[in-house]
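Input for the complex:
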Amino acid sequence: MIVETGHYALVLALALALVNAVIPIWGARRHDPQLMAVAPSVAVMTFVLIAYAFFALTYAHVVSDFSVANVVENSHSAKPLIYKISGVWGNHEGSMLLWVLILAIFGAAVALFSRNMPDELRANVLAMQSWIGAAFLLFILLTSNPFARLAQPPAEGQDLNPLLQDPGLAIHPPLLYLGYVGLSITFSFAAAALISGRIDAAWARYVRPWTLIAWIFLTLGIAMGSYWAYYTLGWGGFWFWDPVENASLMPWLAATALLHCAAVMEKREALRVWTIFLAILAFSLSLIGTFLVRSGVLTSVHAFASDPQRGVFILVILTGFIGGSLALFAFRAGELKQGGIFAPVSREGALVLNNLLLTAACATVFVGTLYPLALEALTGEKISVGAPFFNATFVPLFLPLFFAMPIGQMLAWKRGDLLGAAQRLMVALGCGVVAALIFAAWHGAPWASYCLAGLSVYVIVGSFTDLAGRVFADNASHAWHRATGLPRSAWGTAFAHAGLAVTLLGLAATGWGVDRVLTVRAGETIALGPYEVSVLGLVPEQGPNYSALSAPSIIRKGGVAVAKIVPESRFYPSRRMSRAEAGIATLGFGQVYMSIGGASPDGAIDARLYWKPLVSLIWLGALIMGFGGLLSLSDRRLRIGVARRARVAPVPPGAQPAE
Amino acid sequence: MMMRKRFLFAVLAIGAMQPLPAFAVRPDEMLQDPALEARARALSGELRCMVCQNESIDESDAPLAHDLRVLVREHLQAGESEAAIRQYLVARYGDFILLKPPFKAETFLLWLTPLLVLVLGGIGIALAAKRRSQAQAVPALNAEEQARLADLLKK
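Predicted:
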């Protein structure tokens, strides 16, 4: 019964979304406050209904209701509770439901937290949001109904894919979706601005917190996915330039570019057309990512053609929204006035360079991901575009970006002093060079690795150079007071930039790691970089829904035990799949990583052992970036809904330090 | 393992599920000579496992990948260069086996995209900046206006 009410709630939500897609726009056109006032309450109601539907599906999974097809296909009565819950979104139908749920959360959040916004803007934004919601609700109801019942329910379910039975799955997709779908708000703001034809600095301020929220979640979601792959797949890789990963990287690149150019628009009212375009682009890339992942087109062009229903539906949604918004953009862009002028060497100039490089990087990922599909569809010729291609094209675009990051932070708005900035960065540059030399002397790694390490140290120091100069300007005893007095967004920028550089340091350090593939036996000791790993024995284990072979091992450094790891090779009988559960010990910022394969009859096992120095920095860097985003989000001037107050009482020019 | 990476983002939990053998490169395949083995690993990383999703033969567990790894090592032991082995494999399997596609008529757009975006973007930015500064440049005062200005200043 609960399942049916969940289905019904989805249908109602679709009806409400359709209402909200039309009435507020109409109200905004006629300047009718009563019609516009419909939008917020309907948005909240839509959210409540979708949340109920989501609850209903979760309930079916938790109680193992095997009369529901979705539960049968993805659950098992012996599965631990956490995976019964996370299994709700570990499949196509459930994850689409999560997608619309998050869309509705954002819609409701705009309705509740943007009371200070002009009514017309809010009505238009919520209407746009409802159009997206309606399209995807229709998609779920017509092609991917999670509530479908089975006429003859089986006694037991087919279980969730073992790779997905992991705490990482509980967190990763919701985070990533919060980012993906969060960009829909930015898109709706852009579309609303184009509909009303009014775009100014206040608009940029309204959008900014939403873009930041989406960007933070996207950053954390991508990092989480990468760490999950790292410890689940059993061979220590963390980024594969896989199309599914690229699908999340593209919106991240676009959102990063958008954050930066929106800063120009907010401060100087310049780059309006480009800001709007990026806002459309970022969400379009999210939609394209959803299409790539959901349609099956990645597996093969032919697989897509043989079962095209879902793919074609998403493709129609995609073309509708991207085409529609771009048409609107083309129609209106000419009316947008250009803002203030600036010299090439200035904060604005640096941000334009940032946007150029990020856009080129995004285009590279886009073409690299779609080119093989397009080529095969058009000519039938098959090519592969993998990691070596992206290393050769994407990396050269990102390196100048790293180099320019601290310089950009040093430049003043309108007209900057490049020589002065370079002089002030001498300390940072010196730190970078010294760090590179130390790493080189210490490890003798390939030169590219320690050059990258030096570059990241330069960026980390450089990110804080400007702020440090201001904090310790004269009297050191006032440092804390001055530090807290500086705008939070300036600190946010510094932390986000430094975080990216910390990630780069982690990546650079992979160059001097140790990788061993070998056969081991109980009692054997293996030298691994600075450590020795002793395998204590091979122990059969029994989990709730799997059987496993584990190889508890002790890690020693100079004879002293520092950690114990228990890599496992698991077998899940319900899916007839096995999976390696790596044993990982974090030592300092580095990790010892060990995974084992099956045992041979004579008691030996295949094992992979890695010493990965500084590897945890890759993900810690993402956390630091997210923290920077949060700091920026908490900036007093930029909180949600502050824009109007700020406009009423403008801060005198020069009172705020530029950041 | 054909579908392995598909699961990275959970979102693709549908599709062909296969039993998962746990390993990529196996100890018994590896060469005694560490220098030659390092070359074999590097080269394997550039070659696609033809039955997999975007996985190199170095990372893949598929039987085909195993055969190709052994093949690459045999050729290296016979003293062949990387280029010769690549050429041999392309002759047998086509460009599909190279994870880094060759630069040719069908792929020049792929390779040149980063450069094109940079150059066209740069030109676009330069033009926009020029137009902006022209549009906002203040025209010089003509004689009549200068006279009025002088007049105003006198008052």
